[in-house]
Structure formats: C-alpha cells, structure tokens
Design brief:
399 residues; 4-stranded mixed β-sheet; 17 helices; 47% helix; globular; binds nicotinamide-adenine-dinucleotide; binds magnesium ion
C-alpha cells in the first residue's frame, strides 16, 4: 500500500538490542522516510548497538550499564557518528518521554521496563507494548495513566495483537456492548508440551530455550516452556481489554498459526492467522491504522493441520499460579512476576532445576499476598520483597 504519511513519525525503541528491538528496526528499515529514530536503548550489547547506530542514526543511544556506555561512547567518537550516548536507567525515561517522540516501542524484558513505559503513558505517547511485565506488575496504574493522558496503547504480544485485530475497532472495554463473550489466547505449549512431569523436572536450560515455533529472548523462552508466559498473557489481557478472568480462555495450539481469537455472543469466533513472525504485529502497530509491509513470508496453509487441546495445569502449574495471582489482586501479580524473574535467572544459570520455578513462585505468593498496588512505589516495593523471598527460597533448593 502506498504510504499516506508525509512527515516521519519519531520513534524511541527501548530494548533495541533484543529480539523485538531487532525485528522493529527491520520493519522500520523497510519504510525509508516513514520513521525517524530518536533513541535506541540497550543494556550491555555494545557491538549490536554500534551497528544499529551506524544504520539508524538515532539522536541518542542509551546503555544502562555504565561500562557498556563508556565502550560505546569511545567507538561512536572514533567513528564520528552524530549520536549522543547516555547511561543509566533514568535515561530510559528521558528518551521515552521527550517531547519530540511520537511513538515508543517498549521492548525491554522484565519489570526493568516498567518505570520508563509508565512515564511514557503519563506523557501521552503512542505506546507499542511488547514489555508485558509492565501490565502484569502495574496493570491498573498503567491503564489509568493511559486513560488520564489520552495515550494510545497498541499491543505487540502476538496473541493480544491478534485479539486487538479481531475486536471491533471502536471497542471500549465493554464486553456486553460489543457482544464479546470470551477472549481465546492460543499457546504453542512450548518445548515440553508432550513431556512427562519427570522429564520436565529434569529439563536443562538449553532444552527450555529451544522453542519450537518462535525465536525469542531467553527469559520469555523459559516462560514459554513453563507456560508462565501464557499466565503473564492472561493478566496482560485482563488489563488491555478490561476482561474478567473467567472471560479469558487458554487453548494449546502447537502450530502457532492461529494467534488468538475473540468469541462473540452470536457464536462467531474471529481469529487472526499468520506465519509466526513478530514482524507482523510490530508492523501492524507501527503503521496503525494503515497496513504496511512487514517482510513476513506468506502463510502457507495447504496441507497443514491446525490442532487445539486443553492446557495441563498439573504439569504446568505456572499457568494456574497466574490465574491465582489475578484473583488475589493488589500486588500479587507483581509478586508473581518478580519471583518468576528471579527463578528463571537462577534456572538459566544452572543453579536450580526447572520445577523450582513454579515452586518458588508458589512459596513467594504464599508469603507476600495482599499488598497494596496504588502507586509505583507500592509495586516496586512488592517487586523488591518478592525478589528477596524468592531468592532465599531458591538458595534453599539449589542443586
Ligand atoms: P531480549 O532478551 O531479546 O531483549 C531484551 C532487551 O531489553 C535488550 O535490548 C536488553 O538490552 C534490554 N534489557 C534487559 N535488561 C534490561 C535492564 N535491566 N534495563 C534496561 N534494558 C534491559 O527480549 P525479547 O525477546 O526481545 O523480549 C522483550 C519483551 O517483549 C519481553 O517483555 C517479552 O516478554 C516481550 N515479547 C517478546 C516476544 C518475542 O518474540 N521475542 C513476543 C512477545 C512479547
Ligand atoms: Mg505472546
């Protein structure tokens, strides 16, 4: 489609050096003149950031790690690139909320992405939200900030992007009025879908990050293996679409072709399908409301079988823990998220077994249920406490 945009939209990409960041810049590069990069951010990957600076010429490059920032600054100076290097977490908020910025791609992994993404919501930006942990930790606060500032929120997570596409364009969160009965989140089932509980308990990090259909960062790959990713997505859907927990259904669909569905009162089920490639939801949100080229290969349906099965919460307890945290309310989802982040990191380090992830989350939720969630400070406090409780628990079960 021919572009109708005349002046470029100004974009900041938080987490530019990650999987979603790289895919975002791939789509941007397919549309010269349509977007201008204000800032790119990363944590430690200097070489990749340098390469991105050469190609995209952002005004600012942020490295949150000071040593990485120093190394990048040296290289940028040596190459005489017109890019200013900033460091530290406060710089994330600065480049997310600067008045020049139209669009924020929020693609940092984990609760580390929350403060800058929340600040962009308060500043009324168009937010392309990949960082699902923002909604898990601070759903009410974040959605209130979006409503108060008039910010626009476009989901990048493939399931939520699919649901967004399958809902009426003017959907305002009123299920009754829109005739919406349920939201169906599809889940691939991850690499351990058909494994026994014993085999899952003994799974290695390499096995957990080997996702059958999607190439993703390590943390979300482990979350997919435990089904915690789907649990986080249930909480994400609750806030994005104002859904009650019982209106959110999960179905395992191992082919990852149906990206999610909306079930209507008249029995219609509207789904979005596509090749599993995150550039589709990214391009949808970058171009919205226009459809723009994403570089994604066409969906090949001939000869393909699409299958659907119920998730098994006995072998994958993390999914149920997420529903439990949602039911508990308050800061419980922040506690769930933080405990999960700590456990996944320890698992990836080879320090605890795979099934310690669910066990440590259950333990931490038991200890810390019922906290307040009214302010960012409440939530960051719950996050800190949960990291400490989960850390102690994981120390006690280390291999
Ligand atoms: P990734 O690990 O590939 O990249 C993470 C990015 O965040 C990197 O740029 C890294 O430098 C940055 N980062 C990490 N820790 C940071 C910190 N403490 N402070 C500042 N920056 C930090 O992760 P990803 O797969 O690109 O996922 C990013 C987000 O998008 C996650 O929230 C994930 O759940 C979500 N998401 C990813 C996919 C996918 O296909 N990869 C799909 C749906 C949703
Ligand atoms: Mg997803």
């Amino acid at each position: 489609m021919k572009s109708t945009v005349t002046t470029p939209r100004v974009l900041t990409v938080l987490g530019a050096t990650g999987t979603i960041g790289v895919n975002t810049l791939d789509v941007v590069a397919r549309h010269p003149g349509r977007f201008e990069i204000f800032a790119l951010t990363g944590a430690t990957q200097v070489e990749r950031m340098l390469e991105q600076c050469r190609t995209h010429r952002p005004r600012y490059a942020v490295m949150t790690e000071a040593t990485a920032a120093a190394a990048l600054r040296e290289r940028i100076t040596a190459e005489k690139l017109p890019v200013e290097v900033l460091e530290g977490s406060a710089a994330l908020t600065a480049v997310a909320t600067a008045p020049e910025v139209d669009i924020l791609m929020a693609a940092i992994v984990g609760a580390a992405g929350l403060p800058a993404t929340l600040a962009a919501a308060q500043a009324g930006k168009r937010i392309l939200l990949a960082n699902k942990e923002t909604l898990v930790v601070a759903g009410q606060l974040f959605m209130d900030a979006i409503a108060a500032s008039g910010a626009e929120l476009l989901p990048i997570d493939s399931e939520h992007n699919a649901i967004f596409q399958a809902l009426p364009r003017d959907f305002n969160g009123d299920f009754q009025q829109a005739g919406v009965k349920s939201l169906w989140l599809t889940a691939s089932g991850g690499p351990f879908r058909s494994w026994s509980a014993e085999a899952i308990a003994a799974a290695t990090p390499a096995q957990a990050v080997a996702h059958p259909n999607w190439v993703m960062g390590k943390k979300i790959s482990v979350d997919s293996a435990s089904l915690m990713n789907k649990g986080l997505e249930v909480i994400e859907a609750r806030w994005l679409f104002n859904a009650r927990p019982e209106q959110i259904k999960v179905v395992v669909h191992p082919q990852s072709i149906v990206h999610s569905m909306v079930e209507y009162a008249d029995g219609s089920v509207i789904a979005q399908l596509g090749t599993p490639d995150m550039r589709t939801p990214i391009a949808y949100a970058l171009g919205f409301p226009e459809r723009i080229d994403a570089g994604v290969s066409a969906l090949e349906l001939m000869g393909k079988a699409l299958t659907f099965e119920a998730p098994d919460t006995a072998r994958f307890p993390c999914l149920q823990l997420a529903f439990d945290a949602l039911a508990a309310g308050g800061s419980a989802a922040a506690v769930l998220n933080a405990a999960n982040e700590v456990a996944v990191a320890r698992f990836l380090d080879g320090v605890v077994p795979f099934n310690a992830i669910a066990a440590s989350i259950a333990h931490t939720l038991d200890r810390l249920a019922g906290g307040a969630a009214a302010t960012l400070e409440d939530l960051l406090g719950a996050d800190r406490q949960a990291r400490s409780v989960a850390g102690d628990y994981l120390e006690s079960v280390r291999a």
